[in-house]
Amino acid sequence: MAAAAAAAVGGQQPSQPELPASGLALDKAATAAHLKAALSRPDNRAGAEELQALLERVLSAERPLAAAAGSEDAAAAGGGGGPGAAEEEALEWCKCLLAGGGGYDEFCAAVRAYDPAALCGLVWTANFVAYRCRTCGISPCMSLCAECFHQGDHTGHDFNMFRSQAGGACDCGDSNVMRESGFCKRHQIKSSSNIPCVPKDLLMMSEFVLPRFIFCLIQYLREGYNEPADGPSEKDLNKVLQLLEPQISFLEDLTKMGGAMRSVLTQVLTNQQNYKDLTSGLGENACVKKSHEKYLIALKSSGLTYPEDKLVYGVQEPSAGTSSLAVQGFVGATGTLGQVDSSDEDDQDSSQGLGKRKRVKLSSGTKDQSIMDVLKHKSFLEELLFWTIKYEFPQKMVTFLLNMLPDQEYKVAFTKTFVQHYAFIMKTLKKSHESDTMSNRIVHISVQLFSNEELARQVTEECQLLDIMVTVLLYMMESCLIKSELQDEENSLHVVVNCGEALLKNNTYWPLVSDFINILSHQSVAKRFLEDHGLLVTWMNFVSFFQGMNLNKRELNEHVEFESQTYYAAFAAELEACAQPMWGLLSHCKVRETQEYTRNVVRYCLEALQDWFDAINFVDEPAPNQVTFHLPLHRYYAMFLSKAVKCQELDLDSVLPDQEMLMKLMIHPLQIQASLAEIHSNMWVRNGLQIKGQAMTYVQSHFCNSMIDPDIYLLQVCASRLDPDYFISSVFERFKVVDLLTMASQHQNTVLDAEHERSMLEGALTFLVILLSLRLHLGMSDDEILRAEMVAQLCMNDRTHSSLLDLIPENPNPKSGIIPGSYSFESVLSAVADFKAPVFEPGGSMQQGMYTPKAEVWDQEFDPVMVILRTVYRRDVQSAMDRYTAFLKQSGKFPGNPWPPYKKRTSLHPSYKGLMRLLHCKTLHIVLFTLLYKILMDHQNLSEHVLCMVLYLIELGLENSAEEESDEEASVGGPERCHDSWFPGSNLVSNMRHFINYVRVRVPETAPEVKRDSPASTSSDNLGSLQNSGTAQVFSLVAERRKKFQEIINRSSSEANQVVRPKTSSKWSAPGSAPQLTTAILEIKESILSLLIKLHHKLSGKQNSYYPPWLDDIEILIQPEIPKYSHGDGITAVERILLKAASQSRMNKRIIEEICRKVTPPVPPKKVTAAEKKTLDKEERRQKARERQQKLLAEFASRQKSFMETAMDVDSPENDIPMEITTAEPQVSEAVYDCVICGQSGPSSEDRPTGLVVLLQASSVLGQCRDNVEPKKLPITEEEQIYPWDTCAAVHDVRLSLLQRYFKDSSCLLAVSIGWEGGVYVQTCGHTLHIDCHKSYMESLRNDQVLQGFSVDKGEFTCPLCRQFANSVLPCYPGSNVENNPWQRPSNKSIQDLIKEVEELQGRPGAFPVSISSETNLSKEMESVMKDIKNTTQKKYRDYSKTPGSPDNDFLFMYSVARTNLELELIHRGGNLCSGGASTAGKRSCLNQLFHVLALHMRLYSIDSEYNPWRKLTQLEEMNPQLGYEEQQPEVPILYHDVTSLLLIQILMMPQPLRKDHFTCLVKVLFTLLYTQALAALSVKCSEEDRSAWKHAGALKKSTCDAEKSYEVLLSFVISELFKGKLYHEEGTQECAMVNPIAWSPESMEKYLQDFCLPFLRITSLLQHHLFGEDLPSCQEEEEFSVLASCLGLLPTFYQTEHPFISASCLDWPVPAFDIITQWCFEIKSFAERHAEQGKALLIQESKWKLPHLLQLPENYNTIFQYYHRKTCSVCTKVPKDPAVCLVCGTFVCLKGLCCKQQSYCECVLHSQNCGAGTGIFLLINASVIIIIRGHRFCLWGSVYLDAHGEEDRDLRRGKPLYICKERYKVLEQQWISHTFDHINKRWGPHYNGL
After folding, report:
1. Which range, 234-248, 848-862, 1350-1364, 1537-1551, has the best average confidence (pLDDT)?
2. Judging by beta carbons within 10 Å of its beta carbon (0-12, 13-18, 19+), is residue 49 exposed, middle or buried?
3. Cβ-based neighbours of 1017, under 8 Å, separated by 6 or more
4. 1632-1658 as b/e, with b when 16 or more CB fall inside 10 Å?
5. Distance between CA atoms of residues 165 and 141, nearest Å
6. Residue 1078 bridge partners (DSSP)
7. Where are the beta strands (DSSP E) in 155-269?
């Protein structure tokens, strides 16, 4: 075959000479130019043929993708080597030909110039960040790319940023979708006018080449597709697509060239002639034939056909070229398709156990023919889309097809094609393995097409879009139907969807439903739908598939084995497939003119319901123990009714069915309400947790207005139209509490266990209250509803703005008008709530901005009924009541425990007035009477809640009584009268005063009532008639209901007997074990009024407590000042009711007065049986328990608070009560420690040392100090990069390396401190423990299997007392207490003697009380803690020596640890010591112990006395000019030494504890060196003239008496000494540029000298404070120097402060000043002769470091986000998936990115080690949150950016603008500086180096 094919091509060789396979671009260009010229001629037939032939050869499709054909074919086709090369060659040819001989890039540019871009049309894929502005959008799906958004003006609009789920396209410029005011600058201009016309020859070649190119692509797609048995595997499809990647990308690039090229492509894609010529004209080519056959096979399965219908294939001969496979001509167009077996060919398996499945009538008329048929393709576009679907929507193809959309003509053609393929899309989607991805891609396309109303309308009219969609949805659901088991399991004909099927579980139907909702949002389309009766019938059929799905059967014996979680799929399906289209339709039924639509929907809805009742064989009783929460047909009916009355002024009765249908309609919704009560009473526990889940979902905010609200509304409608007695008795029967409603004190309930009775009774009454007081659909306006919803949510808890938006049930359809965040939402919110700005407790939790109800809302609007209706968790009701109680107590309105307040309701819409008849029916009055009586008599199973609801109902009845009540009520007609003689009429007002004397009840024989004698029947005026009517009470409820039902159902009595089911009799057949029921007659002699008055006495606990208020003030009755809203408890409620009753009727008033006159007989004494006592006391006991608990909690909280203050407060050093490490007895010289583990106290000893709990951490905070006040900003443009060379760490590094270049290494390592980066910081919580106790504690932690947030193997633990995080124990040195150190006594030795003593002490090795040689426990611990300290930081931060492992390294490291801790403490105090005082840090500082450990180890290294700097400081030596230059490198000159380091070295080299006078001596000597350094630095800084001036001025004063204490003299001397070297000579011009132009005044010089010396004084004072326990004085900033100097003993005590203070007066020279200065300067001189530059640089030491800060962040988060989220990583040059930026240094890193991983460390972890020595603070760009990395753990810290409502937006889900919260950022910075991340943040987890 291959040979034949080659010959076929060979036959058509072009006349042009054959180009070699490696044809140079030049030849291609020449050929292209030649052809273009040929085609431009008027007679271009020859050129056209030539081009065809060339294309035939270049694009020939006979290189099958699998490269099956040998290389000869490939070569023949004009490409060398395998298919890949040939492909590229073909593409190159195409580009050349398109460009017609020119360069392809120039061609692109030329075409772009003709782009009339009025639309943006940028297409994006999933995860792209786009914007949506609701203010500018016409369609809810409107979206803008970031560029268009930022270039438009959307200030003050309601917009948000979002991450695209499925992909989308930018709508800028499209006025169908958005308002023109929102267009960006580029798309505002209608630019079509001024764009020149496209020159004909520019795109001429494209018109010839592209059809062949696209056809070639289609050939490939046909070829690569194999129709396998079970759908092609992912792998094959992807292989084909990968090979085609370059071709598709080429097409995609063409679409981006702008409008001119798009219109050419549109022509090519939609031209039917082209398609026909190319697809049918290649008959003789075998390869083409083969691919064509494959295409036909692929087409076969594209229709919605049933293979069973045998009239399918072979009716006509398919002619070559077109696929005219005649498909079944939609047989059942008019009738149903019979009971056809099974369904689609791919559904054979899913027909389990159904055998015959009921097919649904699709629609009348034969217009659906096209939906059923196999597809026929007439253009390239159609076939391209077909393959796009077959290959499951490859992203590139989708983007190509969408990029063309700005072309209007294409848009219409493409939409029609898409609709034509709709059924095929559904089939492919159902079979797809990757249905999620595919769904997203489908919606990506359809949302672009269907959001445009004009387009949707056009397609609806021309292509029957609605029919297609409904049919396709129906078909889709048909594949997963099962038989419904509701009601009549055997004979049910109803089928429902099976929620366990993948189709529902994975939400596969989502794209189709979402398209349907989208097109229904257009008015014109929705109207067509509502007018089309056929469609409505089909749609109701579709909805009925969901009616009764996911049926729950109550488990009565054992717990279910497997809890299925399919219920969520069922709720989602009803919401998305039924409710949302319903809301869409409702939004178009807002005005009177649309009445007809409502009538249509209601009509077909009722028909569908009638069919449903028939199908499930429903008569009058629901099957027991079954419930389904899904009744979409009921809800459609209810919602359209509500709309009809509310908006369309329809008469309700005209759309209501007959009574019988209403009775049926109410059964299932009522069943759900009863089941909710059962579920909450734990009657369904054996069904598992999922049933609770269903009950919650049913009322949850996203579902409630499509579920519970319509159900309750439907019940309200039924109640308003049915007989009230029937309705009430139905309710109590459904709730199974009929048997409880008896006057007898004992009863039997055959359907309910005793423990459930109380909560079921509460449920029934609560339901009645909700039913009667809810006005959501009965007359409230939208704004009132919104307000009520909002108040209910806010009363339960304070809410954030976003959670409130989420909790307010909004109309699920996006076009409904009330959009979240809309104007009405904000205005209602500001009316009912106050905003509580977020609070920041230092070290506490980050709160969010909350809204809390205003006081007047609690006072007037709190509505418990609404709260009960909307609570998902029952505890929220309690929470609302607690908050209400707290408000009343606080505002002094009511002190006690209030009851839920009674709230007056908005008035009813006239159509629903019948609802109030429920309150005026005898059945309800009997129930209320009975319950009041039972409560008064303390029967069991009644609660305060029941009483509350009973009173609520009575009050409702009085509020809604008939207007005029005649005192003598007219006698009601006969038959009505005889059935019940409890009450004379049905009006509550008159029935309240009616006395009931005797009641006959049936009770168990054991009941107390039986023992009594029957009273004589003479006195009873009522008893005679009572006996006629049989036993009054219980039966009336059930039997009454039956009787009413009977009357309604059969008007003729003949059928009565067979319909009634003998339930009533069976009900009383009590089980044998129970005692027999007998009849007893009770004497009652009460009316509702008298019961109420007695209740008042009972509640208040006093006799005769009720006194009618109108006796004092008759006015009360005439104008009862009854507020709309009343607070109080049961007593106030009773008073209110009695007042209302009296004011409504004179008779009542009289009777109340009478009752009060009779001294009330005492309430019958309580028979205190255990059970009764239990019930009565429960409430009281609960109350007491609650109070006790409150008290305990309060006590506990205050204890905890005081503990927290002492132990945990890290942020506010001022007001803190220090925690004593030591006991306070001054006599004891030894310190005593408490061990927090064993609880013993005692001194720390050699063998049993005590230790401090400490946390060691490496820190680079010091290194981040900079020398300028202005904090660095986070870079948000390319220019603003941050360079770290001005940080403290960098400066110190440079200095050390400079010293190491010129001086001896060991000497360099003593001249500086390290630890600015990676220094070890030691902090303690102040608790101590025995070290052996600690070891066993660690052992127990190791064996503890509980998952801890820390790693015990690394030595981490939490302090056993305060739970603070720690990782080591610092041994306490045995010995004296700091406070009373015997060494502190001042001595009067001269400074010279002290200097000698110091020197001797330093020379004496290890003069410790503890000799190191003997290994004690203490020394072992000291060593181990030293090891810990070393291991805390990385090696690179410890080793600075040139010779690795030199002891100098350790020496340097150890004294630097002390330095680091002192410097950090200084920073925590704010960088100076002005505040003074013994800081908290002081009391909880471990510096003293740390010093002992360090000193012990330092003394292991002795410094050669030769090199001891002390000698240089205190002795004059022989000056040898040749000194030291023979050795390789000299020592570091003493003037280059760091004085603070010298101090620490000297102290640590001396035996501890140190004597105070030795310390002072050290400080004095070092101060002289420091001062000289300051002078030298000053001399280098000033200009030449200044220098000479000072030199002379000082020289004059040299002879004065205190010359050594005058800075002028000393300065001039230093200058003259240094002048001898070459130090000042090298001043080039650049030097002068640096110099300060300000002339130095004596003041500024004095300030400079003081500033230079201050850091040393501060550190020294701190050290003195820690070593000797002296307090630090507090002072003003300007006098800090003098205060510290005198505190250190530098200032003589007699120093007067009259004249301005001079720093030089602190000098105390141990040897003549001028001699020693000369000696010091000499060292420098010899160095400066060689290296003057460096010599100068080393003299100027920067000592003024500002406090460390994090980077300053911009005000608006968007600026960060826009810059960083597309930024490429500098390491891997990709855009990171999770970008993050370091807030310390501004480095941009890939979080979790494997791309930047180094030696198993991801980039963030690596950076945290390099930048913060293990502590990293990163802002996650895509989430707006900050994460902290600390060593091997990390935690989410929270966000420092909050929206306008003070809320975080983690992961930017809401996409609202975010603004910096300065307070939070301060807290973050504070935690960083004080190293308290570990203590304050609780949720740490290991990161395994993966961040």
Report:
1. 848-862
2. middle
3. 1023, 1024
4. eeeeeeeebeeeebbebbbebbbbbbb
5. 12
6. 1003
7. 159-163, 168-169
- Secondary structure of 556-581 in HEC code, one letter for each residue: CCCCCCCCCCCHHHHHHHHHHHHHHH
Q: How far is CA 667 from CA 517, 571, 632, 641, 957, in A?
A: 30, 21, 14, 18, 25
Q: Alpha helix locations (H) across 1800-1881?
A: 1803-1812, 1862-1873, 1877-1880
Q: Is 1197 exposed, middle or buried (0-12, 13-18, 19+ CB in 10 A)?
A: exposed
The identity of residue 290, as a single letter, is: K
Write out the two tokens for 131: 């914007």
Whether 777 and 714 have beta carbons less than 8 Å apart is answered as no
Distance CA 161, CA 239 (A): 36
Encoded tokens for 1110: 């109108």
Rounded mean pLDDT of 1009-1032?
Answer: 38
3-state helix, strand, coil in the chain (%, to 5): 50, 5, 40
What is the C-alpha separation between 1233 and 1210, in angstroms, rounded? 23
Which tokens in the block code for residue 282?
A: 């290649």
The string of pLDDT tens digits covering residues 858-912 is 998 999 999 999 998 889 999 999 999 999 999 888 888 899 998 888 888 999 9
Q: Residue 111 has what pLDDT? A: 80
Distance CA 1853, CA 1174 (A): 52
Q: The tokens 């339930």 sit on which residue?
A: 1063
- Within 10 angstroms of residue 125's Cβ, the number of other Cβ atoms is 16
Task: With H, G, I as helix, E, B as strand and everything else as coil, classify residue 1691.
Answer: coil
Separation CA 1825–CA 740 (nearest Å): 58
The Cα–Cα gap between 1614 and 212 comes to 92
Using DSSP's 3-state secondary structure scheme, residue 1818 falls into strand
Alpha-carbon gap, residue 19 to 77, rounded angstroms: 11
Token output for 488: 């009549």
- Residue 1743 near residue 1759 (C-beta atoms within 8 A): no
**In whole angstroms, how far apart are CA 847 and each of 304, 651, 844, 1846, 1887?**
57, 52, 9, 9, 26
Residue 97 CA: distances (Å) to CA of 23, 90, 92, 616: 14, 10, 9, 71
Which is nearest to 1135 in space by CA: 958, 1395, 1013, 1369?
958
DSSP class of residue 833?
Answer: E
The string of pLDDT tens digits covering residues 1150-1188 is 888 888 887 555 444 444 444 444 544 566 666 777 777
Whether the upstream peptide bond of residue 1271 has omega within 30° of 0, thus cis, is no
Q: Which DSSP letter does residue 1009 get?
A: G
Alpha-carbon distance 1689 to 1695, whole Å?
A: 11
Residue 127, Ramachandran bin (φ over 0: left; ψ between -120 and 50: alpha; else beta)? left
CB 1540 within 8 A of CB 1547: no
**pLDDT tens-place string over residues 366-393:** 344 556 667 788 888 888 999 998 888 8
| The dihedral formed by the CA atoms of 152, 158, 164 and 165, expressed in degrees to the nearest 10 | -160
| Cβ atoms 559, 485 nearer than 8 A | no
Q: Picking from 969-978, 1305-1314, 1609-1618, 1880-1889, which range would have the lowest pLDDT averaged per residue? A: 969-978
* Cα–Cα distance, 755 to 764 (Å, whole number): 16
Best-predicted range by mean pLDDT (268-282, 1185-1199, 1859-1873): 1859-1873
Cα of first residue to Cα of last residue in the chain, in angstroms, is 58
> Cα separation of 1605 and 1600, whole Å?
10
Name the burial class of residue 1175, with classes exposed (0-12), middle (13-18) and buried (19+) by CB atoms within 10 angstroms of its CB: middle
* H or E stretch at 520: helix 510-520
DSSP helix/strand/coil, 1310: helix
Distance CA 764, CA 1282 (A): 70
Q: Based on the number of CB atoms within 10 Å of its own CB, is 159 exposed (0-12), middle (13-18) or buried (19 or more)?
A: buried
